[in-house]
Write a structure and sequence with these properties.
Elements lengths: L3 E5 L6 H14 L4 E4 L16 H11 L4 E7 L6 H15 L3 E5 L18 H18 L4 E5 L4 E6 L12 E4 L3 H10 L2 E4 L11 H21 L8 E5 L13 H12 L5 E5 L11 H15 L1
Parallel strand pairs: 1-2, 1-10, 2-3, 3-4, 4-7, 7-8, 8-9, 9-10
Antiparallel strand pairs: 5-6
Length: 300
């Protein structure tokens, strides 16, 4: 299988001041997918412009034709499965079936307390994530759902006519631990990772590759435990959070080398951040476009 190249476009620009043109340019450059973060605010961007993921993706769907769209990733931190399902079905319809929803357990950032709640423990995040996925899966595949869980409920929630993509739009499940891997194996059409966060500051690229190999092996074990072939899942690496940091975007050769090493681990999709000057995602625009246009052919 050829390695797909995708990008993630942070929602920090006004639509009519660079936002729209970035999404249309992503399609022109031939990216397989363009994702955006689904946060209320994020890290160093907290005190600057930041727009909502679903409206942004809806606008992007209206100005593109082939580009797949999605979140990397949404989470239970401020989402509820009932309302999210309605938005996703609408977005899938507007885009003509071009949506992938990336879903994760959520973290400890600003989103974790923005609604006034106490920050959840890791165990509670994992428990909520499992229930969130279970209910969202039902909401996107059944016309009417009633459900009462420990954290979420639904009462005769209607989702007619359902997704354009059948039986529902694909889930890209972000996971690194055993529970998350089991959820990816059960519900995912794709699995997403950013690598091992413990290696970001002081690790080496070689250590990162080793950690990612272990993650892919754990995913395979989780799939085998339920009788599923791990080859059915796309394996997505969101770059920028491994010890390599921005080096893969320094040249076409550097990217091809980086992507090739990770393709050998079984990854089917590499996601790079659209350059943002003065941020952790700064990169040369010209080189970035050269990578988008030239690297996929070299990777086969």
């Amino acid at each position: 299988m050829s390695l797909r190249l995708s990008t993630v476009i942070l929602p920090h620009r006004r639509w009519h001041d660079g936002g729209r043109s970035t999404w249309t340019r992503a399609e022109q450059l031939g990216f397989h997918s363009a994702y955006t973060y689904d946060h209320l605010s994020w890290r160093s961007f907290r005190d600057g412009p930041w727009f909502g993921a679903v409206p942004t993706l809806t606008a992007a769907a209206a100005v593109t034709e082939r580009l797949r769209l999605g979140t990397l990733v949404t989470s239970p931190n401020f989402r509820h499965p009932v309302t999210l399902a309605k938005e996703l079905i609408s977005l899938d319809d507007i885009s003509g079936g071009r949506v992938t929803v990336g879903i994760g357990a959520g973290g400890t950032g600003f989103d974790a307390t923005a609604l006034g709640q106490e920050q959840w423990t890791p165990r509670e995040r994992a428990d909520r994530f499992a229930e969130f996925l279970q209910l969202l899966d039902r909401l996107l595949t059944e016309e009417a759902v009633s459900y009462q869980g420990d954290f979420y409920s639904a009462h005769e929630a209607r989702n007619i006519p359902g997704c354009v993509q059948q039986p529902r739009l694909p889930f890209a499940v972000a996971a690194t631990g055993p529970r998350g891997m089991r959820l990816a194996a059960r519900y995912g059409q794709a699995w997403v990772t950013t690598g091992d966060p413990k290696l970001y500051e002081n690790g080496t690229p070689e250590q990162s590759v080793s950690a990612l190999r272990e993650q892919t092996e754990k995913l395979a074990d989780a799939c085998a435990a339920i009788g599923r072939d791990a080859g059915e899942l796309d394996k997505v690496l969101l770059t920028g959070f491994t010890p390599d940091r921005g080096r893969p975007l320094e040249s076409v050769d550097a990217f091809v080398d980086f992507a090739g090493r990770h393709r050998e681990l079984g990854f089917t999709e590499i996601v790079v951040h659209w350059p943002i000057p003065g941020s952790d995602f700064a990169a040369d625009d010209k080189v970035f476009e050269e990578i988008a246009m030239e690297a996929p052919a070299q990777l086969g």
